[in-house]
Design goal:
binds the ligand O=C(O)C(=O)C[C@@H](O)[C@H](O)[C@H](O)COP(=O)(O)O; two-stranded antiparallel ribbon; binds nicotinamide-adenine-dinucleotide; globular; alpha/beta; 15 helices; 373 residues; EC 4.2.3.4; 3-dehydroquinate synthase; binds zinc ion
Length: 373
Amino acid sequence: MSEEIKKALTVKTGQRTSYDIYLEENFDGLTEAVKTLEPEKRKICIVTDSTVASLYLNPVKAVLEKSFAGVSIFTFPSGEPSKNLDTVRELYRHLIEAHFDRKDVLAALGGGVTGDLTGYAAATYLRGIDFIQIPTTLLAQVDSSIGGKTGVDFDGYKNMVGAFHHPSLVYANLSTLKTLTAEQFACGMGEVLKHGLIKNASYYEWCINQMFEIQDREVEALKTMVLESMKIKKAVVEKDPTEKGERALLNLGHTVGHAIEKIQNFQMLHGQCVALGYLCAAYISWKRGLLTNEEFFEIRDMNVGFDLPIFLDALDENEVVLATKSDKKMEHGQIKFILLKSIGHAYVDFTVTDEEIRAAVHYFLDNGEEDEE
Ligand SMILES: NC(=O)c1ccc[n+]([C@@H]2O[C@H](COP(=O)([O-])OP(=O)(O)OC[C@H]3O[C@@H](n4cnc5c(N)ncnc54)[C@H](O)[C@@H]3O)[C@@H](O)[C@H]2O)c1
Ligand SMILES: O=C(O)C(=O)C[C@@H](O)[C@H](O)[C@H](O)COP(=O)(O)O
Ligand SMILES: [Zn+2]
């Protein structure tokens, strides 16, 4: 016989309930933005990579020195191969030697690699300290700085170790996007176009219509675009902060994308792999009769327009299928795939077969010529 049970107590988790995002055109506003953090009582450690350090460390340090009780610097070699526990370990050591306590703060100054590894260090150092995001790549401004996914790659497995840990604030300075290489700017466009594809067809069309302005990095176009993408990401993560459901849509392109990153030993850039990944998802959706011919070819051509790849070089279909199964996308033995019902409407699908993945990869190895007629 089952006994009636009654809650004895409820424990409030005390997790951060909100944080602010600033979208500015310089670093000056950081002084105002950090005021709510009581910076005069706390030390801050700026974590940044070697490339960003040479560009933006001095101005950011100068601004933070005006507010915080002390400023310390930790730099690491730029690039995805640094996003691992070795770098986090060096950061822990630096923080211990600089006597960082639970009230002190980390600042992630840079792209998604810096944000992910700094956030993870903040989530775990002394069981969790505050951190702020100062994203300097397009990808980080529109995507990785928002939502609290932090983590590192482990033994070749993408983002395999991590934690949800939200920043105390996000401060994006649009003018930093001017110094990005064309390739890095394109990577950010991979996640921007993903946002349109999963949630907002008119935003996707706006990106097509504004292609020249965006590619010329005109400030007004960038401001509108970054803000719109931030809004899409915010809306999704607010509804489902720990990816129990709808947040998985943000993974469009990441099932195959992460497999490519793994196979290429993280030598190929995340945004490019995601762009190839969503082409494969679009192909499967097209072959299932969900996307029209027009939609499928528009998605492919948009990659060309925004300098994103449409061909998979020297990849083996079977290796891709195998790699998708060693990512975090498996649930109860089934692969979690994000497909498109139409541009602007994505959904989670558990029925994608190995054969469909192989066919999609094969299509983009083959340049797609046979199917185009
Ligand atoms: N946490 C999330 O929600 C989330 C979302 C998307 C991507 N990610 C992760 O983000 C990473 C990719 O981020 P990324 O593309 O920003 O890579 P990144 O951090 O490696 O930055 C790309 C390159 O640009 C350089 N750079 C940064 N800012 C610059 C600037 N303003 N001018 C010139 N060069 C600059 C960096 O030094 C680096 O070499 C991946 O590890 C991916 O898994 C995480
Ligand atoms: O914020 C999310 O949720 C995303 O999926 C955003 C992705 O662009 C990002 O690359 C994320 O890190 C992928 O997460 P993962 O859980 O598949 O590693
Ligand atoms: Zn991504």
